[in-house]
């Protein structure tokens, strides 16, 4: 038994010590879903259980300030875990105190440990940026490649190293401010290197608005370009933005300024903009509707062969349109081009912790107006995030080769306090509504590519062809009191929640109003953000369900927690606004199961998380009587309902089969996550002599195929699980290498397709006589019995199918949920 870490409950000790997820994956997941009380988990992983979080932070501070630290104090630390701990501290600082000192100390400590162990550095950008934020100039110069920048490559590291060193000498905010001329030389280096005219600035309170170049305005002729500039309550940066378009080397340009119904007091600025040139037109929206509605009005007025966008507080380099038009000339397949931008503040300071200073610039979009608008129609009329949707829709309709982004800094993108998107991003965290919107429109785009459906939004009936979260539409939730909200991990990889779409569809078909909330189970933690399964997105596209984040102001009758581990840690208080009448937790495995390595859960901690987040008692639906007794014995105070397996399967139309000349044996190991995967040794042990059987394996594409001649390996990205099971007479569902996460779903899905299942013994209490088990005897003997005795095979098939038709029927599941929505819960 591993030693406990003070303040860390046993189930998190099990997770930290199991090895199923890396510290980096956990750090990203903890920040992405705003899990609270998480820092001790990462401290344990960073120090192999030796130190608490405060102790590691103290060691890092001592090293930074030159206080003595004996070498043996660093021995328990390892670089990957310490880096992840530093990254988590950085993200937590964003969400609370905003002081990056501890994060900087920890990154320096992690770099020291990496040097000791001879392993690669990690999180270099965050390391450099937080040290600059706390004024540690020597550290920044020591660990960047551009202390004296001459050439900045297109490698991302080169750009943020250049930005950090240029910011050190920023004359308006730098730690070591240089003269304006010296700073300009450093700032202009990457522009000059790319053949772009250098910029000059003046020493004023808003130097951004003084930018000038010596490029020859109007020196290049060609088709008319219409640039639409939506604005609301503009500053004098609107004049800077408009001049930057009028001063383009591409001379044939019109500027369409659309005022999104600004309040009184901005008339003078609009008058000044109109006075700049007769190429500027001004139009006012009848009411405030957001930037994309304003853009659409401007595009409807555009006359140019090409149309583009410019934000009203940004600056386009005078060669921007010339360079983008040259791309059209080089590649006749193009219908749209974009460019990169330098992101900087009004005082020309570029480094913003957690952000890239050189980035893709969505408002630089320039496209062939008639081709794109004629096929796609206007922008989606959201309050936020519709830039990306439109750009990706162009690529979905015309092909990826029809859209290109120039790898040149052709804009200065001003970071302003009033930006609608400024508070939507933190390390590993995006506003949940943005994530929901992106997953929905990308699913729609996939259907555009594969099914050829109409790519206009709104469609011919005036409806959005995919669901959008109310927060981004600027509206309220149409249903603030659904019957049920299901909290699940909706990603394609985990098997534990892969039946949720069928459950939601059954509830909807019975007339219940169902919402969906998401979080990632910690045992399936990942650094990369993954979008939901296609079956769930299909339900949303057809209005069967919709996203209802835990931060949404809705009050469901029942919040159904689909997996106990989704509440292994509570969410931060300010991340929860949902107020359910009842919170019901489904428990399909014992709280503590197996020996290390294992994952586990503790009912009192789940109950405490429910009370803290929703101010409700937790109610429990155990899968078996044994699980129910274990929950009750743990000391919970909430209701433990009678046992019921809360799963649905649909029995195949013709599930019964007879074994042919050779038994077709399938081994199901389909999960994309180590915690649900069998060990290679276990798979090798299960593969019987292929001379006797036709053996096939279903597995994740990242896993190596079995090195056994004659065994067919099928990848989950090529064949659906149901199609695989339809090939098989018998399916073996092995035990995962990590105890506590048995593969229930593959077992019941195979049973519903008419297969005899030989399952992990951990499922015996759940499936009973509906399955056979790997501890019933040697696998080869079990297979021989089934092969030689058709009656035995048919009898076992019958038990499996009867179990699916009764215990796992949609009607039984809906009846159980109906009971919860129509009977009162307790506080």
From TrEMBL:
Query: Which residues does the annotated region (Disordered) include?
Result: 452-484
Instruction: Identify the Pfam families for this entry.
Output: Glycos_transf_2 (PF00535)
Against InterPro entries, the record matches this protein to:
Glyco_trans_2-like (IPR001173), Nucleotide-diphossugar_trans (IPR029044)
Domain annotation Glycosyltransferase 2-like: ranges: 226-347
Q: Where is the composition biased (Basic and acidic residues)?
A: 452-464
Q: Which GO terms describe its molecular function?
A: hexosyltransferase activity
Keywords, comma-separated and alphabetical: Transferase
Top-level lineage group: Bacteria
Q: What is this protein called?
A: Glycosyltransferase
Q: Which organism is it from?
A: Aeromicrobium yanjiei
């Amino acid at each position: 038994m591993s030693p406990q870490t003070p303040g860390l409950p046993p189930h998190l000790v099990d997770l930290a010590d199991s090895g199923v997820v890396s510290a980096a994956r956990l750090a990203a997941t903890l920040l992405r879903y705003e899990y609270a009380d998480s820092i001790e988990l990462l401290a344990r992983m960073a120090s192999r259980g030796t130190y608490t979080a405060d102790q590691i932070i103290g060691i890092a501070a001592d090293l930074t300030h030159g206080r003595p630290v004996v070498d043996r104090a660093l021995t328990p630390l390892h670089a990957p875990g310490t880096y992840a701990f530093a990254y988590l501290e950085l993200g937590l600082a964003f969400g609370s105190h905003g002081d990056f000192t501890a994060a900087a100390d920890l990154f320096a400590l992690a770099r020291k440990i990496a040097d000791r162990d001879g392993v690669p550095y990690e999180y270099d950008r965050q390391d450099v940026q937080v040290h600059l934020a706390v004024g540690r100039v020597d550290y920044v110069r020591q660990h960047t490649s551009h202390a004296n920048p001459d050439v900045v490559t297109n490698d991302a590291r080169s750009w943020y190293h250049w930005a950090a060193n240029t910011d050190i000498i920023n004359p308006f905010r730098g730690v070591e401010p240089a003269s304006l001329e010296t700073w300009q030389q450093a700032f202009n280096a990457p522009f000059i290197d790319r053949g772009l005219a250098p910029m000059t600035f003046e020493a004023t309170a808003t130097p951004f608005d003084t930018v000038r170049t010596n490029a020859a305005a109007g020196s290049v002729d060609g088709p008319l370009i219409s640039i639409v500039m939506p604005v609301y309550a503009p500053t004098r940066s609107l004049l800077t933005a408009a001049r930057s378009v009028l001063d383009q080397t591409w001379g044939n340009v019109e500027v369409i300024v659309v005022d999104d119904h600004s309040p009184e007091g901005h008339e003078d600025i609009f008058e000044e903009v109109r006075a700049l040139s007769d190429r500027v037109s001004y139009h006012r929206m009848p009411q405030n509707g957001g930037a994309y509605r304003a853009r659409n009005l401007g595009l409807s007025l555009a006359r140019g062969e090409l149309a583009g966008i410019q934000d009203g507080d940004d600056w386009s380099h005078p060669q921007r349109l010339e360079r983008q038009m040259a791309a059209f000339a080089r590649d006749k397949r193009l219908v749209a081009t974009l460019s990169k931008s330098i992101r900087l503040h009004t005082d020309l300071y570029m480094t913003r912790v957690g952000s890239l200073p050189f980035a893709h610039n969505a408002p630089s979009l320039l496209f062939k107006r008639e081709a794109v608008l004629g096929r796609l129609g206007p922008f989606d009329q959201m309050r936020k995030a519709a830039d990306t949707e439109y750009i990706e829709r162009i690529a979905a309709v015309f092909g990826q080769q029809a859209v290109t982004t120039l790898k040149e800094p052709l804009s200065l993108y001003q970071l302003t306090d009033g930006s609608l998107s400024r508070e939507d991003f933190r390390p590993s965290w995006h506003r949940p509504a943005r994530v929901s919107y992106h997953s929905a429109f990308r699913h729609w785009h996939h259907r555009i590519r594969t099914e050829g459906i109409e790519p206009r939004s709104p469609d011919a009936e005036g409806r959005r062809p995919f669901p959008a979260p109310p927060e981004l539409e600027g509206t309220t939730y149409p249903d603030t009191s659904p019957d049920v909200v299901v909290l699940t991990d909706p990603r394609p990889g985990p098997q534990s929640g892969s039946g949720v779409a069928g459950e939601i569809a059954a509830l909807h078909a019975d007339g219940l109003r169902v919402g969906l909330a998401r979080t990632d189970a910690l045992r399936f933690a990942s650094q990369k953000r993954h979008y939901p399964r296609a079956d769930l997105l299909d339900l949303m596209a057809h209005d069967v369900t919709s996203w209802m984040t835990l931060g949404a102001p809705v009050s469901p009758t029942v919040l159904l927690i689909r997996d106990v581990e989704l509440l292994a840690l509570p969410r931060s208080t300010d991340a929860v606004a949902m107020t359910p009448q009842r919170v019901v937790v489904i428990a399909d495995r014992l709280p503590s199961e197996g020996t290390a390595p294992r994952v586990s859960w503790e009912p009192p901690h789940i109950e405490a998380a429910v009370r803290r987040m929703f101010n409700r008692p937790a109610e429990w639906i155990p899968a078996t009587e044994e699980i129910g007794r274990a929950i009750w014995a743990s000391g919970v105070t909430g209701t433990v309902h009678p046992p019921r397996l809360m799963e649905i399967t649909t029995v195949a139309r013709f599930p019964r089969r007879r074994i042919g000349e050779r038994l077709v044996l399938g081994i199901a190991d389909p999960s994309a996550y180590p915690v649900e995967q069998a060990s290679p040794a276990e798979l090798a042990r299960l593969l019987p002599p292929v001379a006797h059987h036709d053996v096939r394996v279903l597995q994740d594409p990242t896993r190596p195929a079995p090195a056994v001649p004659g065994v067919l390996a099928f990848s989950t990205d090529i064949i659906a699980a149901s199609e695989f099971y339809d090939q098989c007479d018998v399916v073996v569902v092995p035990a995962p290498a990590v105890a506590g996460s048995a593969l229930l779903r593959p077992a019941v899905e195979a049973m519903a397709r008419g297969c005899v299942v030989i399952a992990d013994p951990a499922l015996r209490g759940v499936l009973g006589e509906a399955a056979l088990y790997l501890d019933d005897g040697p696998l080869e003997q079990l297979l021989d019995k089934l092969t030689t005795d058709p009656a035995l095979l048919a009898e076992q098939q019958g038990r499996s199918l009867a179990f699916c038709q009764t215990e796992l029927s949609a009607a039984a599941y809906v009846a159980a949920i109906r009971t919860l929505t129509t009977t009162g819960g307790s506080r």
